């Protein structure tokens, strides 16, 4: 099992970052504009991109602290993997410790998703700090895989 | 052992990307402006940032195809790790398969470096595509760790 890891610091409160990763309206403002569902514990979030989508079961959602998703629909490589968000405060930042865990093997798609997650996390940071993110389909293009 | 993985596609030739990752002048234009040394096989590259630096021994350098660095000086967590660059062509892109391999454990600094590598790889892509990258100290700030 292998994991994608990231860390960003957002100038904003833990509550603001928690809202950015649990509210469908705010997820739509930094990840993909076609986001539906319920980001609370026990809910399912549906993220649709141009080539396909991901459904996430919200296994854990502890306000201003922690969110854990399980991928229940999407590309084969993603099914059964977990997306983990842990928030804490350092200096003036809310630190987001992010991991997309439990990939079965290091396929090239994992490299792609790692870089792509980084650019989306920067989009989330921008959203909280400035009010404007860069969600799909207006996201940063990193390669021929978009 | 755990690895950081990324993949970016650069609109440009493999030769241009190879030059961006082997020429000290070009490395200085996307990673850190204080870059010295020799990027050819057997050489040592010295990258200096504001808080510290990394020295890389160039273990392998196959023009327009592949570069492998070993970290011989720098933060404890980096010493002995390897930075691998593999280039190939897809569509109009030179695809860069990147890994920073052999971390002893998943420390928070690894999360930070993963996100930071992504933003630097985007800086390298920009440099090749537009002639202007965003090297340290004018790099994209991602958190309180810079």
Automatic annotation (TrEMBL), chains A, B:
Residues 14-129 form the Activator of Hsp90 ATPase homologue 1/2-like C-terminal domain. Pfam families: AHSA1. Belongs to the AHA1 family. This is Uncharacterized protein YndB with AHSA1/START domain.
């Amino acid at each position: 099992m292998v994991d994608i890891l990231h860390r960003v610091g957002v100038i904003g409160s833990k509550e603001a970052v928690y809202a950015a990763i649990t509210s469908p309206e705010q997820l739509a403002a930094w990840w993909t504009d076609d986001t539906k569902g319920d980001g609370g514990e026990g809910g399912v979030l549906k993220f649709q991109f141009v080539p396909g989508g991901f459904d996430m079961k919200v296994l854990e959602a502890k306000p201003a602290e922690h969110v854990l998703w399980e991928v229940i629909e999407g590309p084969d490589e993603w099914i059964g993997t977990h997306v983990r968000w842990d928030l804490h405060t350092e200096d003036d930042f809310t630190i987001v410790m992010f991991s997309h865990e439990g990939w079965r093997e290091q396929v090239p798609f994992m490299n792609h998703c790692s870089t792509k997650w980084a650019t989306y996390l920067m989009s989330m940071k921008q959203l909280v700090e400035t009010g404007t993110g860069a969600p799909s389909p207006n996201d940063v293009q990193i390669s021929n895989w978009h």
